[in-house]
């Protein structure tokens, strides 16, 4: 089942979140295969069976350190919109500790042992390694639960799905530790990944496949909901962005590089929005939009300035032979003066094209 999902998800242009989900599929598949190998070899009597059993049990225990860690990184990436290197390294410390304990196991037998009769047995301190996935699962559940309670109504289903993604294997791990011989952790994680994949496929109906941002349909749904909720002194600001000279990039560097340019542009916007409560979408071609609720003109201007700064940093780091930049237009409205959203969009669009025209002059 997991191999089929991996085959369907092949692509050379994956976002960080998509790559993490794919690595999670690979890690769980490896654990399931190694787990099956250890059960097949346990108690086998052919020559060399015990050596193979010891070898595959080491591989199995080492492989168990990764899936829940990658799953946690996936949850963090979905919740926060990006993955911080410091966070990833901090949560990798238990993995290094587990690897060190496994390296000592041949002498200590703390984690597991294989008898002369080729029978596997848990070591006295097997939980020192066996509990490491709990750290990562618990961290993922805690962060997702926190985000769930702070999410807007239209976002909650996504975080509920993420909770299921980690809660199912969490209960499976508890059952597996408490009842020796019951194998529920990895099948539970495989089942949760299938559920998550189905949800992702459904979500693709509202997600731009290239950049991973919300698409135009999701943008229209969100702005209709936000517009309906706009009352009194509450406000809404719309920023419309267009990649400058995008046709030139396509014509001179090729459409594949044009796609990479759009992915890079989307990455800049995601970083600019990090920690801010706005809505980001690709609304067509090389055009993007940001919706800020309960904001003011200063906040919108500050965000546009941050986008320009981050784009300059991206250009210095990328060195692709061309530079990316945005033309941007902004328009705002309060609940007391709202008429219709299309009028706000038209004002932002006009401001964006006016900036583009001025840059050409």
Task: Outline the structure in words.
This protein has 361 residues and is an alpha+beta fold. The chain has helices spanning 2-8, 16-41, 49-63, 67-80, 85-108, 127-130, 132-150, 156-178, 185-203, 216-229, 246-253, 255-273, 297-318, 341-360; strands spanning 112-114, 120-122, 235-243, 279-284, 287-293, 326-334. Strands 4-5-3-6 form a four-stranded antiparallel sheet, with helices on both faces. A two-stranded antiparallel ribbon has the order 1-2. Helix 1 (2-8) packs antiparallel against helix 2, helix 2 runs antiparallel to helix 4 and helix 4 packs parallel to helix 7 (132-150). It is elongated and about 80 Å long. The mean pLDDT is 86.
Average of per-residue pLDDT values: 86
Order of helices and strands: HHHHHEEHHHHHEHHEEHEH
Number of helices: 14
Say how many strands there are.
6
Radius of gyration: 25 Å
Strand order of the largest sheet: 4-5-3-6
Question: Per the principal axes of the C-alpha atoms, what is the gross shape?
Answer: elongated
Tell me the fraction of residues in β-strands, as a range: 5-15%
**How much helicity do the residues have?**
55-70%
Largest sheet: 4 strands, antiparallel
Low-confidence stretches: none
- Distance from N terminus to C terminus (CA atoms, Å) equals 57 Å
Q: What class, by secondary structure content? A: alpha+beta
Oligomer: single chain
């Amino acid at each position: 089942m997991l191999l089929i999902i991996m085959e369907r998800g092949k692509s050379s242009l994956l976002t960080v979140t998509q790559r993490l989900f794919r690595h999670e599929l690979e890690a769980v598949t490896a654990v399931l295969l190694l787990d099956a190998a250890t059960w097949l070899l346990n108690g086998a009597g052919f020559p060399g069976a015990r050596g193979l059993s010891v070898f595959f049990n080491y591989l199995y225990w080492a492989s168990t350190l990764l899936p829940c860690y990658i799953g946690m990184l996936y949850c963090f990436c979905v919740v926060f919109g990006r993955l911080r290197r410091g966070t990833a390294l901090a949560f990798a410390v238990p993995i290094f500790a587990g690897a060190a304990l496994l390296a000592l196991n041949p002498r200590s037998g703390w984690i597991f042992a294989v008898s002369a009769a080729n029978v596997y047995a848990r070591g006295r301190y097997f939980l020192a390694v066996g509990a490491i996935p709990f750290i990562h699962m618990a961290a993922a559940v805690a962060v997702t639960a926190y985000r769930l309670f702070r999410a807007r109504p239209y976002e909650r289903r996504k975080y509920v799905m993420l909770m299921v993604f980690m809660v199912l294997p969490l209960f499976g791990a508890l059952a597996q530790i408490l009842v020796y011989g019951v194998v529920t952790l990895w099948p539970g994680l495989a089942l949760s990944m299938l559920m998550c994949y189905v949800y992702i496929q459904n979500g693709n109906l509202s997600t731009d496949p290239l950049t991973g941002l919300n698409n135009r349909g999701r943008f229209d749904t969100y702005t209709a909901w936000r517009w309906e909720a706009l009352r009194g002194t509450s406000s809404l600001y719309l920023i419309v962005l267009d990649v400058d000279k995008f046709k030139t990039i396509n014509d001179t560097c090729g459409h594949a590089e044009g796609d990479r340019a759009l992915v890079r542009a989307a990455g800049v916007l995601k970083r600019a929005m990090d920690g801010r409560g706005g809505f980001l979408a690709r609304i067509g071609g090389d055009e993007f939009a940001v919706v800020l609720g309960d904001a003011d003109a200063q906040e919108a201007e500050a965000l546009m300035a941050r986008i320009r700064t981050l784009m300059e940093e991206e250009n210095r780091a990328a060195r692709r032979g061309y530079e990316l930049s945005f033309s941007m237009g902004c328009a705002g409205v309060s609940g007391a003066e709202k008429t219709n959203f299309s009028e706000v969009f038209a004002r932002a669009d006009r401001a964006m094209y006016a900036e583009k025209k001025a840059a050409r002059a």
